[in-house]
Amino acid sequence: MTEQASGAHHPQPRPRSTGQPSTPLVEHVTGAQSLIRSLEEVGAETVFGIPGGAILPAYDPLVDSSRVRHILVRHEQGAGHAATGYAQATGKVGVCMATSGPGATNLVTPLADAHMDSVPMVAITGQVASKLIGTDGFQEADIVGISMPITKHNFLVKNAEDIPRTIAEAFHIASTGRPGPVLVDIAKDALQAQTTFSWPPVMDLPGYRPVTKPHAKQIREAARLITQAKRPVLYVGGGVLKARATAELKVLAELTGAPVTTTLMGLGAFPDSHPQHVGMPGMHGAVTAVAALQKADLIVALGARFDDRVTGQLDSFAPHAKIVHADVDPAEIGKNRAADVPIVGDAREVIADLVQAVQREHSEGHEGEAAGSRYAGWWRDLNRWRETYPLGYDQPEDGSLAPQQVIERIGQLAPEGTIFAAGVGQHQMWAAHFIGYDQPATWLNSGGAGTMGYAVPAAMGAQAGCPDRTVWAIDGDGCFQMTNQELTTCALNNIPIKVAIINNGALGMVRQWQTLFYNQRYSHTTLHTGAGGATDSREAKGTRIPDFVKLSEAMGCVALRCESPDELDKVIQEANAINDRPVVIDFIVHEDAMVWPMVAAGTSNDEIMAARDVRPNFGDNEDD
Predict the structure, then answer these.
(1) pLDDT one-digit tens code per residue, 239-265
(2) In the prediction, which pLDDT does 366 show?
(3) CA dist., res. 262 & res. 31, Å (int)
(4) Long-range contact pairs involving 467-471 (C-beta distance under 8 Å, separation at least 24)
(5) CA dist 357 → 93, 204, 365 (Å)
(6) Are residue 107 and residue 167 in the same domain, yes or no?
(7) Of 328, 356, 388, at which residue does a domain stop?
């Protein structure tokens, strides 16, 4: 997922690093005041956090600040995921704050999540006083060392005068090149010390020079391959969203006439409703998307990283395809699949240059057959697979709710521009398949890390950043029990997210694997029994521990329950009409529903199952 540049929609405020204002800003302040002033100057609007001993000095000036809104969360993991959701929805840098020791270590999961998904985020942590560092002082943890593998960069600040420069550098690094999380750990005595605040600081980042402009020769070679290919595919990842390159992508796709597949992190980069969109690829991707990559003679990868969920068994992935790989991070090119044409650059600039180069190829008569006739056999194959293996689901015979139907209707009844955040598991894949994403930054997800508990705090962050939009969190009953305490944060801070709990009484995706690969031995995946054994959820349907309706009401939410298809639309419409507080709906769904299609872990994409015991036969390409 080569995710790069500075966000999905909005220009990212940049700290000024060159030139001087006519009247330089100079103030005599504490280090803590310097920190808050620095956050104001770089354009930070919202900070999610929890105070504690080492970071406490930074909280005192927040009482007087009118430009930085602080949202007091209930757990530091919630702060980190909220900052990620805020960044993904707004395109701005998300900010979270925590104290030393356990406060900082509770940020490790959201830092790893943001690192895997290339999300611009700055985490600010308090550290014990400088003289205590390395002594195992109370609530000391080497968060710089701990987080080094899971951040784009991190800093330890011991001197108050370094705070403005460090904050400016942190925001610059987080939001440029391939975005990612940056951690700033500040010793308590640096926050307490007297210092002079001066803005703008002079950034000192030798060696940090992200390449954004692609090489013209590589662009020309890529255009030549595109115009000569008979079975091309545009393989689009989240980097296109981060580069705000969706308009350019649509031009390129329509110019070439090639099919487009968007990864889990790239949903919304190209309209799902567009006739050239063939779906999401991967382990639970659409059959047509998986087949397109397997049968392609050219794959143009734009802001994608050939991760294992897409490729399946790597040595059998796309065996006949040449590869054009464009990525702002040179480390991704050739990491998993060798590239015939490597292109390092910002996805927006790469795609814009490709459009011009392809147009030149056409005008110079190098394209051979017209794309329409050259791709005729290819599109016959693609359309045959689309018609033969469409996405779908069966209604349960007992009249209970199909989880796919629940999610599909939420998407169909949602207001225009609704943002959807999903947890991880079966509901995540159903939300990817059965909600249409025609606009960028309307799908928030933990793709690389696959973090359970992501949805509620990420939705909270998105709603805080986009208060005029509707935000739905699609969560499972397992995920919901990890971070639902942030509903209290939402209720107290006028953040009216809507949460759909897809409640099948089990850890659904793990249970699906136990069904398929462990002879239906349901070890410790049933959530409503203490034994952890194979109790059928239907036997305990009335047990409901916890009762999500009562729990949500106790946290200040409107809470509803839906158990019948007849109630479905009414309940969803009721939730959509409530905008003054959070709404939670407990959807009691059938426990045996499975996610299809599926490629079993470690197998070839050629082994994809469209449904249980249904293995598509892709056959030969019509133009072979």
Answers:
(1) 999 999 999 999 999 999 999 999 999
(2) 59
(3) 45
(4) 469/89, 469/417, 469/418, 469/419, 470/414, 470/415, 470/417, 470/418, 470/419, 470/498, 470/576, 471/89, 471/418, 471/419, 471/420, 471/421, 471/497, 471/498
(5) 33, 37, 12
(6) yes
(7) 388
Assign 559 to helix, strand or coil. Answer: strand
The pLDDT tens digits of the residues spanning 21-63 come to 445 677 899 999 999 999 999 999 999 999 999 999 999 999 9
Burial of residue 116 (number of CB atoms within 10 Å: 0-12, 13-18, 19+)? buried
What torsion do the CA atoms of 363, 365, 367, 370 make, to the nearest 10 degrees? 90
Instruction: Spell out the SS3 assignment of 98-163.
Output: ECCCHHHHCCHHHHHHHHHCCCCEEEEEEECCHHHCCCCCCCCCCHHHHHHHHCCEEEEECCHHHH
The structural domain count of the chain equals 3
Q: Is residue 84 part of a domain?
A: yes
Its domain, for residue 439, covers 403-588
Q: Are 378 and 300 contained in the same domain? A: yes
- CA 145 to centroid of chain Cα atoms: 25
Domain shared by 66 and 152, yes or no: yes
Identify whether residues 164 and 276 lie together within a single domain. Answer: no
Output the domain CATH number for residue 105.
3.40.50.970
Co-location of 409 and 384 in the same domain:
no
Taking the C-alpha atoms of residue 566 and residue 377, their distance in angstroms, rounded to an integer, is: 44
Domain boundary among 361, 388, 415: 388
Distance of alpha carbon 584 from alpha carbon 562, whole angstroms: 11
In-domain check, residue 3: no
Dig out the tokens for 369 from the structure: 């057959």
The SS3 assignment for 97 reads strand
User: Is 152 within 8 Å of 181 (Cβ atoms)?
Assistant: yes
Amino acid (one-letter) located at 287: V
Copy the structure tokens of residue 143: 């968060």
Q: Are residues 228 and 181 in the same domain?
A: no
Q: Where are the alpha helices (DSSP H) in 400-541?
A: 403-413, 426-434, 455-465, 477-483, 486-492, 508-517
**What's the pLDDT at 236?**
98
Give percent of the chain above pLDDT 90. Answer: 85
Residue 512 and residue 382 share a domain: no
**Whole-prediction pTM:** 0.93
371 falls within a domain: yes
* Whether residues 174 and 272 fall in one domain: no
Catalytic residue positions, numbered:
76, 138-139, 188, 509
62 HSE (CA, 13 A, CB side): 20
- Asked whether residue 504 is domain-assigned, the answer is yes
Whether 3 has a pLDDT exceeding 80, the answer reads no
Domain with residue 300: its CATH number is 3.40.50.1220
Distance CA 67, CA 36 (A): 9
